């Protein structure tokens, strides 16, 4: 039985792994000091410091075994004031579509695929604002108890932290000759004659795919020169996705068995009867199935419907296109779900129980080409009579149409038109 991660400092200290969490906090605090993230100063008159807290998380391998106990100090960004403590906050993030396209290229061209991790990535970002923060719990000495932290670097939890880290990384990687992809700013490429390398940045996780081992090592050395990096070698587990390779046969598979097991356990479905399909034939969903009185609403408030659909959605966008339709359908009722919607969500989980070994598989072929299919239903929404269209390539997509269609040719054309945009 997996022990849940502590939700606060007090719970961590009462945990059976309290010593592990103390060691993790000491490591994080030392990182803050080494990076000169703040300086202790008296709080200026009329200034209110933002808060901070410890976040605890166990990092597990592809088999669910604990690899590391990690403590992270985060600022309470919700206490920041716009225009004073921050201005802009947007930061790009790599899409799962980009990740899957790179995986297809890796399989077809038999590329080297390595993974690196940027330690305390957000601490590398510079901040433009003057921000004061209270001292972290368990690290306040008697001599400095009346002092606060004046931030000199970005820190996790700040509203602008991700944005500042991205700008820092982009500036440095571009200086080494990499170019950002036009459609996904977190995918970079570099060409040198016949040699090439792709770099995918997902917050602090980095994937490197290349046809030449020397350019791989050069890139790793460059990154390690500018950031504190952890070289994880051949990529086998990233973003909760297991990567299985058989290079001799040109096969690469993506699986989320460990993630699915975790989801099933979270919602008490680990011992459920496996299901044959994610949705029953003929099942229809509508607003008529939403709660009709306060008693039904109160019953549904006890059910983690939104959280469960969100968990299913992550599996869907990563490796499970087979549940895209039903997950999209259930997502339409997040604000006011009924018991029928919850039963449908549990059916999806039972289906995943049976199919958790499934892999999204890419194979090396004689010719690399895109083959796409699209289809739509006809006025399938019970509430608005709008249609749902979808397509599948190496990627997949499902979307609720913005208008009603009166002819089947119209909505099939709509799906095909979206496909052509790829």
The gyration radius over C-alpha positions equals 24 Å
Tell me, rounded to a whole number, the average pLDDT.
89
Principal-axis shape: globular
Main structural class: alpha+beta
Biggest sheet strand order reads: 7-8-9-10-4-11
First-residue to last-residue Cα separation: 44 Å
Assembly category: single chain
- The tally of helices reads 11
Helix share of residues?
Answer: 25-40%
Order of SSEs, N→C? HHEEEHEEEHEEEEHEEEEHHHHHEEEEH
Strand content: 15-25%
Sheet having the most strands: 6 strands, antiparallel
Unreliable sequence segments: 405-422
Give the number of DSSP strands: 18
Tell me the domain tally.
3
Topology at a glance:
Elements: H1 9-14, H2 18-34, E1 38-42, E2 52-60, E3 66-75, H3 96-109, E4 112-118, E5 132-133, E6 147-151, H4 161-174, E7 179-180, E8 187-192, E9 195-202, E10 205-210, H5 213-226, E11 229-234, E12 237-238, E13 241-246, E14 251-255, H6 257-266, H7 294-301, H8 305-318, H9 324-330, H10 339-355, E15 360-363, E16 373-376, E17 388-392, E18 396-400, H11 408-420
Helix pairs in contact: 6-10, 8-9, 8-10
Protein name: Retrovirus-related Pol polyprotein from transposon TNT 1-94
Domain Reverse transcriptase Ty1/copia-type: 35-280
